[in-house]
Amino acid sequence: MSVANLARPEIRKLQPYKAAMQIDDTVRLNANEAPWNSSGDRFRRPLNRYPEIRPARLQRQLSRRFGCESDQLLVTRGSSEAIDLLLRAFCRADVDNVVTLAPSFSMYAHYAEIQGAEVREVALPRDRDFDADTNAILAACDDQTRLVFVCTPNNPTGTTVPRQKIVELLQSRRDKSLIVVDEAYIEFSDASSCADMLDAYDNLVVLRTLSKALAFAGVRCGTVMGNLQVIGMLNAIQAPYALATPVVECVENALQADQLEQAAQGVALIVEERERVTDALGGHELVEKIWPSSANFFLMQVSNAEAVVAACKERNILLRYFGGSLADCIRVTIGSPEENDTLLGAFDSLAGARS
Ligand code: PMP
Fold it and tell me: Does residue 202 surpass a pLDDT of 90?
């Protein structure tokens, strides 16, 4: 069976939008564009023209970087858009469901709710350091499970799901569900991308983003990689001209060798700082536990977490509080060394104020 059969029937039939033809050095009177560009236009490529319907060169560059063929990848507005496209392509309202881990990135459930798909959460056991249980994930799946989201390293726990467990899911759900591996934070870990398994498993989808390690959250650019037919369907439902000209230029620059080298140094510094900050807070009197993290953040259990978050806010430091099953936890993003020192100073002053 082709994995494309898992998609909504109307999406399987959908043809991509037919955009006006774009050919260099022609008189372009076919797209109702302005014939001149504005005096405020500072970009290399004129903004009076529509961008390419899909940025072909960027797609090639990103596929080389992320390790797949160009036609196995779609460039998206952040990986958030990819999550939305997957939900819209594969889930019928009130019929299909998705399986997510809990706690994990809340956007999977958010887009599932928008689409009217049921969300089945499989708890990551806290007493086993949030280690994913593949049997529990598979037990949550049924014939209507279209997508299984596996975030590794996982937001907000910072823990990873070993490749062997992902292979187990891919094999057990072959022809039944797409296994969506979200690798937003992989550059901060020792793990290698699952993209090298795309040819072996047509139910594998891998998400990458430029928002974290490449420091480009503001441009909104990510990618979804997968089987040709899956990518073809996502391409058909993504908005025409989704990637704006300034975004494409910006990301093409970011992918130059010197920029990539700078980004790699940034990642190394974040990893070093993650170890320094977690070591420093590990023995702190307010901190009860820190989970080892493979991301650019870490999760810690703290006495009176909500009050600590509020006290840090008063000191101009924003931390992430989730409540619910993590009501005694705080997620901390690793900042610059100076920012991290500010956090450590605040924790010392809070402890001093308590004693
Ligand atoms: N996946 C995970 C796990 C995330 O934490 C985030 C952002 N916080 C995203 C995807 C979305 O990132 P973006 O849309 O910026 O690519």
Answer: yes
| Residue range 70-116, pLDDT digits in tens | 999 999 999 999 999 999 999 999 999 999 999 999 999 999 999 99
Going from the Cα of 231 to the center of ligand 1, the distance in angstroms, rounded, reads 19
**H-only helix segments in 43-182:** 56-66, 78-90, 107-115, 134-140, 163-172
Q: Which atom of ligand 1 is closest in space to residue 81's alpha carbon?
A: 14
Which of the listed residues 105, 160, 180 should we mutate to test ligand 1's pocket, taking the one with most ligand atoms within 8 A of CB? 105
Residues with CB under 6 A from ligand 1: 78-80, 105, 151, 155, 182, 184, 209, 211, 217, 222
Who's near 101: CB < 8 A, 6+ residues apart? 121, 122, 123, 124, 132, 137, 149, 150, 151, 154
Strands (E) located in 134-262: 145-151, 178-182, 204-209, 222-225
pTM above 0.90, yes or no: yes
